[in-house]
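Researcher: Go.
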Amino acid sequence: MEPVILNAPPESRGEPGTRRLGLTGGASHQAQGPPLTGPLRILHLEDSPSDAELAREHLAAEGIACVVRRVETREEFSAAVHDGGIDLIVADYQLPDFDGLTAYAIAQQNCPDIPFLILTGKLGEEYAIDTLKLGVTDYILKQHLSSRLAPAVLRALDQQKERAARREAQEQLQRHQEHLEELVQRRTAELEERNGQLAVANRDMEGFLAAATHDLRTPLVIIGGFTRRLEKNCAGKIAAGDLDLLQRVIAAENRMERLIDDLLGFLRASKAVPQRGTIDMEAMIRETYAELLPVIGERQVRLEVSPLPAACGDPALIRQVLANLIANAIKYTGPRASAVIEVCGWAEPDATGYCIKDNGIGFDMRFHEKLFEIFQRLHDKDEFPGTGVGLAAVKRILEKHDGRIWATSVAGQSASFYFTLPRGNASSGPLSQPAAAPVGHRHPDASRVTQDDSCAPTSC
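Model: Structure:
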C-alpha cells in the first residue's frame, strides 16, 4: 500500500504555529501544537481503508499535513516499525488476525518513545482504562472521530515533546553530576597529593630547623663567650667607636640566641602530643602574668580577668599559648602610659573560647592572615623586638588540640586574640574533634574577620 500525503488547504489553517481543532457540534478553537518540520508521519494499523481515509480527512480538516502508511497484519506492522521514520502510531483495537495491544507491545520493544493511539469502533470503559494503564497514550472511539482525533494527536505530540525535554534535562543533569563527580575525584586526588607533598616538606623543614638550631648553638655560645670576655678585658682601653661595634656584635648574638630558642620551642610545639587535663584558666592566666612582671618593670599595666570557663587541654602547652599572647599584649602596649589587658571567655556546647584584648597599637587588618605564619612580622623589629615565631607556635599548639585561633584589631587602638578549645574528659589520649558552633552562637566568628574589635559574650 502506497503512503498518501495530504496537505491541508490554506484556508483551513490557522495562524503560524497553531492548529484548528474540530469540536463536537461543529465548533472549533485554536490550540497550540508542537512545530512540525514536515508532514506528520503516521503508521496506521487498520483493516478498513475507508476508516483510515476518514481519519486522514479529519486531520487534514484541522490543518495537520500528514503522510500515512496503512498496514493490516502483524508482519506489515513489524516491518514498518523496523523501518522507522514514524512520528505517531494509530491502531485499531481489534483486527481479524491481529490486535492493537499486541501491536503496542511490539512498538514498545522497537520505538518506545513514539506516541501510540488506539482508534476503535467499540471499546468498553473497563478495556479503555486497561489500555491506558498499560501505557497507551490515548484512545478514541470512531464515533467521536471528528471531535477527538486531532486534539488527541496534538496532545500526544505535546506529551512526547515534554517527555523528550525531561529526558534531555535528566541526561544533562546526569552528565553534570558525572562531570562534578569527576572534578571532585580529581580535586580530591590533587589535594591528597599536595597534602602528601606538604607533609614531606614540613618534615624536611622541621628536620632542617632542628639540625640548624642545634648546629648553630655551639658556635654561637663560643662567639658570645669571647665577645663578652673581650668587652670586659678591653673596658677603657679601646676607642668608643670600637666599643660600640663590639656591643653591636653582642646584641646580634643575643638576638640569634633568642631566635634559636624560639625555633626550638616551635619544633617542640609541632611534635608535641597533647595530654588532656582540666585547666583552671583564671588561675593559669594570673600565674602567667605574674611570671612576666619582670618584663613589665615600672610600666603601668593593668590586668582585668573576667570569670572564665575551665578548659580541657595540655596544661604545659596551654601555658605556652597564654605566655605568648600575654607577652605580646605587654609588648605592643609599650607606647601607652596606662596599658590595659582584658581577658574574657565564653562557653559553647562543644567548646570553650577565650579572648585576650589589649589597648596597644593593634595591626592592619589587611595583613591579619600573616599573623600566625612563621617569621612574619607586622611591625618594625627595632621598635618591637621579636623573631616572628611565637604566634606560629601558638597556632600549632591549638591545632594540636583541634582548636583554632584568630585575631581582630583597630589599628592604633587595640588588638584582640581569640582562641577555642574543644570540650572533653580530663583523661589522657587524643583530643575530641570540635563540633560546629550552634546556630545563634554569639562568639566572634573567625570566618568573618572584620574591624569589629568587640569580645565574646562576657564584657571584655
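Model: The longest helix spans residues 145-233.
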